[in-house]
Amino acid sequence: MTEKRADYISWDEYFMGVAHLAGMRSKDPNSQVGSCIVSQDNKILSIGYNGFPKGCSDDEFPWEREGEMYDTKYAYVTHSELNAILNYRGGSLENSKIYVSLFPCNECAKAIIQSGIKEVIYDQDKYAGTPAVLASRRMLNAAGVALRRYKKSGRKIEIEL
Fold first, then answer.
1. Closest-CA residue to 49 (of 79, 70, 69)
2. 84 CB burial (10 A radius; 0-12, 13-18, 19+)
3. Cα radius of gyration (the chain)
């Protein structure tokens, strides 16, 4: 009898890989963030990436990071976590988990908590110590949302498209 292959990817590798792949859809010249929401039984429920809302052209709205708020991307971009939550059409996200390539900001933490997501698995935390991330951690902890840093396996996967 033939044995199953042993080098298949883990659930964490799979879902974080999907989150990173989703982030590659972002047209943001500086930050490409992706999210993947997963049920308790490891089914993908929704995916999102950072970008402008529907109907807001990424050729007409600003991508700048500096200047007056109105003239920067910060007034317009919807983060990947919120996009994933809003993209879900199946009912409740209660007790699901979200894989995200960057630790959620305070605004996304509110949406995560309100949607019923119970675990955040994040890859990068490059804004740790900023007020938005400190507030995010405070709210997520208070709401009982589990936080877990993704442990990189070092595995490289190449996909030819």
1. 79
2. buried
3. 17
CA–CA dist 139, 113 (Å, integer): 8
- d(Cα 48, Cα 34) in Å, to the nearest integer? 6
pLDDT at residue 1, rounded to an integer: 83
Confidence of residue 157 (pLDDT cuts 50, 70, 90): confident
DSSP string, 120-161: EEEEE-TTTTSHHHHHHHHHHHHTT-EEEE------------
Catalytic residue selected from 81, 119, 158, 160:
81
- 81 in catalytic set: yes
Cα 93 to Cα 42, 126, 159, distances in angstroms: 13, 27, 30
**Looking up tokens 């317009």, which residue turns up?**
76
The sheet that has 97-102: what strands, in order across it?
44-49, 34-38, 97-102, 119-124, 146-149
Q: So what's the pLDDT on residue 71?
A: 96
3-class secondary structure, 44: strand
